[in-house]
Amino acid sequence: MTENTPHGGTALSGISDDRAPSSGTVRTILTVIGLLLATALLLYVVLQTRQVLTWMVVALFFAVALYPLVGWVQNHLLGHRHRSLATLLVFLVLVVVLAAIGTVFAVPLAQEGTRFAGQLPGLIDDARAGRGPVGGLLERTHALTYVENNEDRIRQYASTLTTPAAGVLRGVASGAAGVASIFVLSFLMVLEGPKAVDGFSNLFAPRTATRLRRVGADCAKSVTGYLSGNLLISAVCGVLTYAVLKIAGVPFAGLIALFVAIADLIPLVGATIGAVVAVVAALVHSVPAAIAVVVFFLIYQQLENHLLQPLVFSRTVKLNPLTVIVAILLAVELAGILGALLAIPLASIVQVVLRDVWDHRRGRPKAEPTVGEERRPASAPHVVQLPADEPAAHRADRR
């Protein structure tokens, strides 16, 4: 059916209205486009600031770990006052401990470096003459002949090492800046933590704010539990390594054991790194000592991975061994060493949040309920205590 237009033409009635987009459709399209642009902008900002965001995440975990210690100092030593002073004292103690650990490493290395520098001219003369262990090794491998025949090529290759050296220096400078930034961020997070938590909680209704506080406390407990458990496992590894190296007669047993304990803080690869260093040090001392250290680490790593870690983390983080391994593997693939360090606490936080959501939605009891001081599961019946003098009619209405 057609109708005349004001200009004398004809138009199909009813079709133009069907094909014209409605205002709701236009609004939906614009909303989707806006969300896509906002997501792209957010991803761009994250990629451009990923290093700073990494520092903030690491600082947050340190702040969560030190938060209970600062609270204890404030409550027991300063009489519930002077939080800034308590934070300063805790961080000063942390700096002293880190400086002591650095000194333990630096002093023996400086002494050995000085002694090696004094012996270096004699070692070079012995090597050139084919004397001593180094000279005999060079003679057997014909290394001196290779160096003499390829002197120009080696000099040219050495000249190209300036660029990697500059990259190493930039990496060291960036690492120092990162450590300083993490330290300052952790200090401010611990100092301003109560104010930030109160301000964030005030954005929600009182019941929701209380729930958020309890879930946040559970997440903080999982982080501190992971750190304390990891420190315990590393301490056990360091003590056992020291005993084995001392019995084998390896020099600097305490220094090597301390390095092994620090390296063992890194999941999956840390124990292997520490074992390689300990085996090399034992091999320099004697072959039987190296064999004994290799056997020790083969046995200990199996016990740590299958007995010690599941036992400790099941008590401190409440994660089963399968979840621990899967979380570490996925985090290593996504974020490397940093992912390995943060995998277990992040998995524990996710577990706490999901458990609370499930309890809130389904009303099921949990192993660690977070719904009241009496730790009553959400599915338990809620008994309302009514005044004894309340009228019977009001009691019936309330029922």
From TrEMBL:
Q: Where's it mainly located?
A: membrane
Instruction: Please tell me one Gene Ontology term that the record gives under cellular component.
Output: plasma membrane
Keywords attached to this Swiss-Prot or TrEMBL record, sorted alphabetically, are:
Cell membrane, Membrane, Transmembrane, Transmembrane helix, Transport
Q: Where in the cell is it found?
A: Cell membrane
Which BP terms from GO are recorded? transmembrane transport
Q: Where are the transmembrane segments?
A: 29-47, 53-73, 85-107, 171-191, 223-244, 250-269, 276-301, 321-354
Q: What Pfam families is this protein classified in?
A: AI-2E_transport
Tell me which positions the record assigns to the signal sequence.
none
Q: How does it sit in the membrane?
A: Multi-pass membrane protein
Keyword RNA-binding included in the entry's annotation:
no
**UniProt entry tagged with the keyword Protein biosynthesis:** no
Under InterPro entries, the record lists: AI-2E-like
Q: Where is this region: Disordered?
A: 1-22, 364-399
Query: What PANTHER family does the annotation carry?
Result: PERMEASE PERM-RELATED (PTHR21716:SF53), TRANSMEMBRANE PROTEIN (PTHR21716)
Family named by the database record: Belongs to the autoinducer-2 exporter (AI-2E) (TC 2.A.86) family.
In its UniProt entry, what is this protein called? Putative PurR-regulated permease PerM
Classification lineage: Bacteria, Bacillati, Actinomycetota, Actinomycetes, Kineosporiales
